[in-house]
From TrEMBL:
Keywords: Metal-binding, Zinc, Zinc-finger
GO molecular function: zinc ion binding
InterPro entries referenced in this protein's UniProt entry, alphabetically: Znf_RING, Znf_RING/FYVE/PHD, Znf_RING_CS
PROSITE patterns: ZF_RING_1 (PS00518), ZF_RING_2 (PS50089)
Xref: Gene3D superfamilies: Zinc/RING finger domain, C3HC4 (zinc finger)
Domain (RING-type): residue spans on this chain: 5-28
Highest taxon, organism lineage: Eukaryota
Residues spanning the signal sequence: none
Name of this chain's protein: E3 ubiquitin-protein ligase NRDP1
UniProt keyword Zinc present: yes
Gene Ontology biological process terms, A to Z: regulation of canonical NF-kappaB signal transduction
Pfam families reported for this sequence: zf-RING_2
Phylogenetic placement of the source organism: Eukaryota, Metazoa, Chordata, Craniata, Vertebrata
Transmembrane domains' residue ranges: none
Amino acid sequence: QAPHCEHAFCNACITQWFSQQQTCPVDRSVVTVAHLRPVPRIMRNMLSKLQISCDNAVFGCTAVVRLDTLTAHLNDCEHNPKRPVTCEQGCG
């Protein structure tokens, strides 16, 4: 969260943004990584309860999971094209 304007961003998005420029993506006020603060706990709790469609929906997954369980679901999702497959022949 940017302390002066209080705009909030996910870590991955703001890190990518800061690789290009040191401003708030919303109002373009000057912000650096050192200025950023964690969002309030209530916001994290609210976000963790959001219902999110699986990233693999385009591959046929119909799961809708809470944001705080999305990563675990993606690792195990049977529709994940990058998921490691265990060989039935025992070769790996």
